[in-house]
User: Which sequence fits this backbone?
């Protein structure tokens, strides 16, 4: 896997993934940015959520669950001192579908958290990661 970042000035960068997709990252105005893109630590949080959501949907489909939507709401707390690493992340999965088995949804979230999600696995040793699940009938 590869990525490339190009400085756009001040504290803004354009990232290009190895698959050819682009993303602008920038800092907050109080840190010299223009608020023109995602903050780097927001990108880490988004990546973690996307990695886990990908797993959950994939696991539910393989379990023949009629999933129609999956939303992951993330909230992170950071250390007060530098480096301001994540100390706690709350992941709330809102999974919508027809006649979803709660045990299947819980299992999918658990498997992602404990086995499949690479981003979670990297953060798990130093971050308190909590999961919540809400199931919505389609």
Assistant:
């Amino acid at each position: 896997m590869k990525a490339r970042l190009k400085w756009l000035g001040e504290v803004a960068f354009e990232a290009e993934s190895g698959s050819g997709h682009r993303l602008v990252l920038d800092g907050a105005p109080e840190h010299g940015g223009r608020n023109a893109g995602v903050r780097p630590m927001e990108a880490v949080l988004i990546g973690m959520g996307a990695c886990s959501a990908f797993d959950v949907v994939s696991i539910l489909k393989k379990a023949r669950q009629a999933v129609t939507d999956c939303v992951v709401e993330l909230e992170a707390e950071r250390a007060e001192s530098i480096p301001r690493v994540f100390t706690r992340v709350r992941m709330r999965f809102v999974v919508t579908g027809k006649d979803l088995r709660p045990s299947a949804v819980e299992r999918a979230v658990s498997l992602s958290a404990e086995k499949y999600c690479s981003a979670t696995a990297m953060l798990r040793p130093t971050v308190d990661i909590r999961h919540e699940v809400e199931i919505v009938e389609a």
